[in-house]
Amino acid sequence: MKKRCFLFLALFSLLLLSSNSSALAGKLPKRLKEIVEVVEQRYAPDKRTAVFDLEIKKKRKTITLNGITSVPEAKYELIDQLHKLNKKYKIVDNFRLLPDSMLGDKVYGVVNLSVANIRRKVSFASEMMTQALLGTPVKILQEDEWYRIQTPDDYISWVNSSSVYPMNKAQFNSWNAADKIVVTSHYGFTYEEPDVNSQTVSDLVSGCILKYEGDSGNFYKVSYPDGRIAYLSQNEGMLKTKWQNQFNYNADNIIKTSKTFMGIPYLWGGTSAKGIDCSGFVKITMFLNGIILPRDASQMAKVGEKLVVDSVFSNLKPGDLLFFGRKATSEQSERVIHVGIYIGNRKFIHSQGFVHISSFNPEDKEFDEYNLNRFLGANRILGHLNSPGITTIQTNPFYQLQ
């Protein structure tokens, strides 16, 4: 299984490199290729968080730009640099900005079911890249039967249109401004009546967010992004204002939350209690403590404070993130492919097969020689909130009025 995961990651990287190079296919002047490469690297170095799909055609003194990008600055600088390259060139600009104008004013949305599976391509058979929970605000960039969306961690990929309720700015702001209920139970349901014996409306997982409509006995009356009304047991949720006020952004709470996922099976792309991958586990654990991190392990490794770790891990603190993968050699660079959370005493919790605790100490029953041998380093998140790549649910722009 470990070999299979590594092979899959290697193939995925090869595909990304192929998609980058396809933009420069054909007999283009060397300087023109260099301009495109510099602009792409500056504004869209990570295809998971920025769209830069460009095809360039040159015929005599005409350069035609075809494609799409989610980064306006990339388009503007590219055209400016091309004009400077040779003022005699005629630029035909078919390089469209996202959100696509075909969407009209419905360029916002909110996830409308418990867990939305977000895929690499417009197909249920395509690789699941990540998930988003009910109530997650998103930006809609493009429609091709499915929606191409961007989530609060800036991840961009495709989701079936039934998973997201599209909104204009006024509707989106109304949703963001409304009182909410956050689901705190890992598994649950809403009901058509304030009675657990009534018809279910949908399932729920921890981290789902619904609009608060009032109280009814021991139930919250709630509504979905699409307007459905339902009832949630007050034992399974909490007013969002109260939920946010309990955040202390400390290691004890993070570790306590992480341990509630013990035994939940590994699922590639999973970020919920239904199934969870390594970075998805870290992501949902932090989110339930109000912290929004980048989606993947390799992205998480670039945020926070990079630590110099000694041989006995004495300078690590509970709550630090640990990274694992391929160590750098003279022939190849380091590659992060796994992440866990340090819990103290040379132990860490992570999702590998299922969520469990491992140890770097050979004397412990949880000793994990495999991960010790591929340990790469650690980053400190706590104490660095609202630094680049690390936001909170109070500060992330997706949760704010637009």
Automatic annotation (TrEMBL):
<dbReference type="InterPro" id="IPR041382">
    <property type="entry name" value="SH3_16"/>
</dbReference>
<dbReference type="Pfam" id="PF18348">
    <property type="entry name" value="SH3_16"/>
</dbReference>
<dbReference type="InterPro" id="IPR038765">
    <property type="entry name" value="Papain-like_cys_pep_sf"/>
</dbReference>
<dbReference type="InterPro" id="IPR000064">
    <property type="entry name" value="NLP_P60_dom"/>
</dbReference>
<keyword id="KW-0378">Hydrolase</keyword>
<dbReference type="Pfam" id="PF00877">
    <property type="entry name" value="NLPC_P60"/>
</dbReference>
<feature type="domain" description="NlpC/P60">
    <location>
        <begin position="248"/>
        <end position="382"/>
    </location>
</feature>
<feature type="signal peptide">
    <location>
        <begin position="1"/>
        <end position="25"/>
    </location>
</feature>
<comment type="similarity">
    <text>Belongs to the peptidase C40 family.</text>
</comment>
<dbReference type="InterPro" id="IPR051202">
    <property type="entry name" value="Peptidase_C40"/>
</dbReference>
<keyword id="KW-0732">Signal</keyword>
<keyword id="KW-0645">Protease</keyword>
<protein>
    <submittedName>
        <fullName>Cytochrome c</fullName>
    </submittedName>
</protein>
<keyword id="KW-0788">Thiol protease</keyword>
